[in-house]
Amino acid sequence: MQNSVVVIGGGPAGLMAAEVISLRGGRVDVYDSMPSLGRKFLMAGKSGLNITHSEPFEKFVARYGKRRTQIEPMLKQFGPEELCQWVQGLGIETFVGTSGRVFPVGMRASPLLRAWLRRLRDSGVIFHLRHKWTGQIDSGGNNSILLRFESPDGEKIVQADAVLLALGGGSWSRLGSDGAWVPWLEKRGAQVEPLKPSNCGFDVDWSPHFRERFDGYPIKSVVLSFGSFRQQGEFIVTKEGVEGSLIYAASALLRDEIDSRGQAALALDLSPARSHEWLAERLSKPRGSRTMSSHLEKTVGIKGVKAGLLHEFVSKEDFASADKLAFFIKNLPVPLIRTRPIDEAISSAGGVKFESLDEHLMLRSMPGVFCAGEMLDWEAPTGGYLLTACFASGFVAGQGIVQWLDA
Ligand SMILES: Cc1cc2nc3c(=O)[nH]c(=O)nc-3n(C[C@H](O)[C@H](O)[C@H](O)COP(=O)(O)OP(=O)(O)OC[C@H]3O[C@@H](n4cnc5c(N)ncnc54)[C@H](O)[C@@H]3O)c2cc1C
């Protein structure tokens, strides 16, 4: 194979495709608008690079919800196990954390990315930084494709035999993936589901007192329920609302509810280890001259931000009834008014619809142009599922390009 392939987007998906193609002897040029590669990947490593998850495959694939059908065949080609072996092949061991999440030893992304880029360079992949694709893509005759880039040296026109678009989703645009490609691909006949925040926070209409007093406070070991979703964990109160791992885990359901009904209310169990009866019995003890806050703390151990939440959402009358207060400690409704902006989300939902792609991730409306990574229409919770599917789709698209060019 001696054709020339252009990969646009130097994140995990684009780089994985570049590796697959270069290993088969193809010439690969990677273009990225940023001054360095893999910025979001590096950001993912800031709080511990959760590369994948060790749970059984059946449970793993279920994390992709409605898109399981499309993602599962990719994970069968390059799934969590292959990904761990691949990381080890770069000289970096992996380990399984207590939650079953898998991390590279050292937790950071930078040693992994450095080793990977070195290996890609050694195998002949050429990187072109500060090259922004502007959406221009035309036929160049003889089955070739012409692309236009803005670069520090002005406009550049590049010819390729096949193209991989791995432009990322629509969150954290300052790291490079800004979702600007959506109208460009729509104009070329691709169907694109609008990008939405995923693994995101929500706005809550806090009272000025609560907002002032509890901004930045963690709420630990509570159970969040919403419909069939029920999970114990923690989250953070922000000036605007709520964010953090437990909120992200339920965020797709909460977002869809807000989209269809205009609002959503999650329910919190502030005292998961205690029963309603235990709480009601303790709360009904005489309060004497104690304030309500001190009564709550002395009898059932609820204080600080958890007590603040109760004051925020429970009426004075209900507070006065031990039984009702116990009920709200176990089922406190927290109304959410909207998602935080997509730019703040960990990832985005929506993207190029699978109906517009063949099984090798080639756009049906643009033969020779493939797509991979977060720009495809799928979403998953945090836990390593995002990166795993980005790598897997890059792998599948890379193989698809090799086959396309061979044919
Ligand atoms: C704070 C944070 C923490 C995260 N933590 C984790 C985690 O622990 N585990 C996990 O699984 N996932 C995590 N993620 C998600 C994960 O990082 C992304 O899903 C993944 O990076 C997406 O890979 P990608 O290759 O599809 O796109 P990206 O990594 O977004 O790369 C796309 C590339 O395309 C380039 N590009 C875009 N448009 C153009 C253009 N027009 N011209 C040229 N270049 C362009 C961009 O500059 C960018 O380099 C995290 C995300 C964030 C924001």
Features:
single chain; 407 residues; 7-stranded antiparallel β-sheet; 5-stranded parallel β-sheet; elongated; binds flavin-adenine dinucleotide
Structure description:
The chain has helices spanning 12-23, 39-44, 57-62, 68-77, 80-89, 110-122, 181-187, 208-214, 245-261, 276-283, 292-300, 304-313, 316-320, 322-330, 385-406, and strands at 4-8, 27-31, 52-53, 94-96, 101-104, 126-128, 132-139, 145-151, 154-160, 162-165, 192-198, 202-203, 218-226, 229-237, 241-243, 264-269, 332-336, 338-339, 347-352, 369-371. By secondary structure, the chain is of the alpha+beta class. Strands 17-16-13-14-15-12-18 form a seven-stranded antiparallel beta sheet. It has a five-stranded parallel beta sheet with strand order 6-2-1-10-20, with helices on one face. A three-stranded antiparallel beta sheet has the order 3-5-4. α4 (68-77) packs across α15. Bound molecules: flavin-adenine dinucleotide. Flavin-adenine dinucleotide binds next to α1, α2, β7 and α15. Flavin-adenine dinucleotide binds at residues 8-14, 31-34, 39-41, 43-44, 49-50, 132-133, 166-168, 171-172, 176-177, 180, 346-347, 373-374, 384, 386-387, 390.
